[in-house]
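Need a sequence for this fold. Nothing fancy.
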């Protein structure tokens, strides 16, 4: 064989080997698709009755598999979609919640979201959420009703969880309601409770540590003496921190040991990270007598009631016939507390009148304020600066120094921030006693490196 022939033969060998290698590499990747095809080719290459029967069975099996696959696709066909609102959604998660009816008659709930930048999805069936069964059919003819709905979901971006409620059949004003949580990291779903009654909106706290709502006791079950009760779930472990206005030890919230009255609590919303705004109603157990209602703040973490100015509220303040006596405070402290109360109530003119003519504001630099005096602002423009206090409360007074007609008050102000814990700010207020009572002379930022702020 000449040199040219050897080269050609070598090239052919290389091509054949390369083709074999290519087939060897490709086949495993397409094994599932080609297995039956290979069997059919092998059977048809050897004629005979046995092989022909094998060919028929193989083709029949392939057709049956295809038929089953087509049927499955038809079962999974979505014939109706309903978007569920997602509260506290963020571009980071971009969550979508869809309630879907399938052609098979089943109902599923699908979650689509991003976690750590990776797209993820999970579909929950009627086996996961029994309340989904027949949801679309059950609501027919109930336009405008709250029955058989998936209520707006609350996304907890801090804990990577989503909470939602599903309503069922209504009995007058009461509705069967189930409350669920899904851990977006492992996609585990958990039903937190299922109950018949009336419920307020389920609200996630601003620091995303709690979910709270009011439960209006069912008249048919009469589980409690109270008519409206507070429920709080810890988002850390998804367990009830407060149930029926009582803690896990069965004690009433806020260390309220007064059993002579029936205490109802209706949630109005979150005031700040750990602080709830509640409507409180105290009524005699006998059913007679006057009911007393007021708006109170409840610090969930500290388990205490607060006045709107941030001071701790005792039983006497709450309308009970007995309780601890309020600690005596100086007139200067009362004026400072009143200043916060007036600003919280949008009574800017009255708050403005508590400022001394020589008042100087040298605080809130974190908000971009520069030094201001009373002469720099009038009553109208004071409303703009006073709005800084709108979400603030006087948290605690550390010390008061009084020298005749002058007083210095060292205190912490708690400022509610969106989606975060309260910001604590050290402040020093200077007051002077005048013919018209105590007036605010100055408000300065406190120094955390100096006493009484430095512990």
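Here you go.
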């Amino acid at each position: 064989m000449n040199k040219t022939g050897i080269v050609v033969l070598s090239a052919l060998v290389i091509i054949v080997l390369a083709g074999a290698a290519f087939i060897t590499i490709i086949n495993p990747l397409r094994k599932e698709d080609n297995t039956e095809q290979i069997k059919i080719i092998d059977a048809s290459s050897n004629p005979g009755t046995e092989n022909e029967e094998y060919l028929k069975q193989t083709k029949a099996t392939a057709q049956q598999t295809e038929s089953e696959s087509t049927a499955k696709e038809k079962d999974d066909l979505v014939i109706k979609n309903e978007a569920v609102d997602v509260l506290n959604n963020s571009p980071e998660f971009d969550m979508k919640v869809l309630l879907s009816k399938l052609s098979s008659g089943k109902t599923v709930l699908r979650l689509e979201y991003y976690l750590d930048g990776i797209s993820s999805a999970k579909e929950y069936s009627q086996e996961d959420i029994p309340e989904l069964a027949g949801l679309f059919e059950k609501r027919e003819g109930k336009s405008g009703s709250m029955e058989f709905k998936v209520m707006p979901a609350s996304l907890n971006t801090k804990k990577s969880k989503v909470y939602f409620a599903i309503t069922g059949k209504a009995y007058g004003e009461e509705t069967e309601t189930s409350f669920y949580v899904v851990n977006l990291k492992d996609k585990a779903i958990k039903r937190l409770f299922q109950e018949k009654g009336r419920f307020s909106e389920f609200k996630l706290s601003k620091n995303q540590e709690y979910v709270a709502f009011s439960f209006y006791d069912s008249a048919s079950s009469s589980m409690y003496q109270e008519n409206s009760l507070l429920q709080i779930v810890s988002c850390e472990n998804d367990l009830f921190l407060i149930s029926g206005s009582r803690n896990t030890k069965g004690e009433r919230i806020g260390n309220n040991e007064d059993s002579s009255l029936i205490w109802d609590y209706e949630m109005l919303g979150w005031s700040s990270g750990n602080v709830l705004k509640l409507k409180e109603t105290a009524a005699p157990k006998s059913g007679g007598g006057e009911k007393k209602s007021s708006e109170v703040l409840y610090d969930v973490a500290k388990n205490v009631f607060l006045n709107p100015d941030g001071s701790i509220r005792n039983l006497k303040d709450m309308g009970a016939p007995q309780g601890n006596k309020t600690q005596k405070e100086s007139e200067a402290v009362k004026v400072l507390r009143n200043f916060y109360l007036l600003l919280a109530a949008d009574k800017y003119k009255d708050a403005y009148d508590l400022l001394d003519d020589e008042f100087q504001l040298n605080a809130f630099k974190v908000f971009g304020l520069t030094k201001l005096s009373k002469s720099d602002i009038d009553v109208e423009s004071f409303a703009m600066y006073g709005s800084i206090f709108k979400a603030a409360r006087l948290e605690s007074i550390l010390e008061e120094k009084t020298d005749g007609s002058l007083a210095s008050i060292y205190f912490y102000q708690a400022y509610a921030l969106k989606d975060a814990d309260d910001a604590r700010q050290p402040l020093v207020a200077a007051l002077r006693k005048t013919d018209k009572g105590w007036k605010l002379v100055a408000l300065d930022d406190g120094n955390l490196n100096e006493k009484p702020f430095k512990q």
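For context: The first strand starts at residue 78 and ends at 84.
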